[in-house]
Amino acid sequence: MDLGLRNKTIVVTGGSSGIGLASVRVFLSEGARVAFCARGAERLAKVEGGLAREYGADRILARPFSVLDQDAVEAFANDVAAHFGGCDALVTNAGQGRVSTYAETSDDDWREELDLKFFSQLRPIRAFEAMLKSSDHGAIVGVNSLLAYQPEPHMVCTSAARAGVQNLLKSLANEFAPDIRVNSILLGLVDSQQWQRRFEARADESQTREDWFAARAAEKKIPLGRLGEPQEVARAIAFLAAPVASYITGARLEISGGVSRFA
Ligand code: NDP
Fold first, then answer.
1. Number of structural domains in the chain
2. pLDDT digit string, tens, across residues 26-67
3. 175 and 56, same domain (yes or no)
4. pTM of structure
């Protein structure tokens, strides 16, 4: 099946690692032009250099900034317009989770988390909205989490924020139709830099990476018996962002190895 991504321009936020980087790779391998960002300039430049050698520098644009910085997001949108002449799909992926219970979460923590979760969607969407509308295939894929429907006690604040983001993406699917399709990805546990950081901070340092990840899969009772790989998510993101998914909007796709408990 041809996804129809050749010569399309795709923007991925948080593209220097994990799911974002895997998505950038899938889009490039499908013949698209890709613009992406992340805060850490050094890692971003290294990733950009490697991708440019593999796929050609003319199809790649990388800029270091936080998606919470409105001016930087707008400057990035202008850069994308100048380099590639528009944008056909936006993947709002940048972010991270906050591990804390209700008792441990201060008002400032709540503000910071709600700010990250909502504005990491809203700022890029506002900045690219006009370009997406001008495309014949405008699409947004919001990367979200199963926590939106299945809150966890150790991630109270992130869970509540995820639920709000899910609601927001559904509203945008209605408001932007028929010009821009908006779909969401509900993640379970995916082996990325976030989980690597948690592995490195493990209590028992004698535990191998393989054993630690297997223990997480058993603890979470993941039916497929393992965490997901970033490229397994990236393939679904690419499908939803692509012209081939032309009649899909307002949908949520769970990628979790079957770990959800809701029907
Ligand atoms: P990674 O940590 O591997 O990748 C996150 C990427 O986003 C990095 O490129 C990071 O670069 C960038 N980033 C983070 N914050 C910002 C910011 N404010 N502005 C711009 N770029 C940013 O994590 P994942 O691939 O796992 O995460 C991708 C998304 O999926 C995140 O939103 C995460 O919360 C979500 N998710 C992941 C789950 C999982 O199990 N992996 C589960 C549920 C949700 P830098 O740090 O340099 O900015």
1. 2
2. 999 999 999 999 999 999 999 999 999 999 999 999 999 999
3. yes
4. 0.97
Q: Check pLDDT > 90 for residue 142.
A: yes
The residue type found at 64 is P
Residues in the chain: 263
Which amino acid residue places its CA nearest to atom 18 of ligand 1? 66
- Answer whether 222 contacts ligand 1 (Cβ < 6 A): no
In this structure, is residue 241 part of a structural domain?
yes
Q: CB neighbours of 246 closer than 8 A, spacing ≥ 6?
A: 137, 181
Owner of token pair 């013949």:
31
Is residue 1 a part of any domain in this protein?
no
Q: Is 169 in the pocket of ligand 1 (CB under 6 A)?
A: no
Give the sheet arrangement for strand 60-64, strand by strand. Answer: 60-64, 33-38, 9-13, 89-92, 139-145, 181-187, 252-255
CA distances from 50 to 62, 66, 135, 153 (A): 12, 22, 29, 40
**Residues of the domain holding 197:** 191-227
**Residue 173 in contact with residue 182, Cβ under 8 Å?**
yes
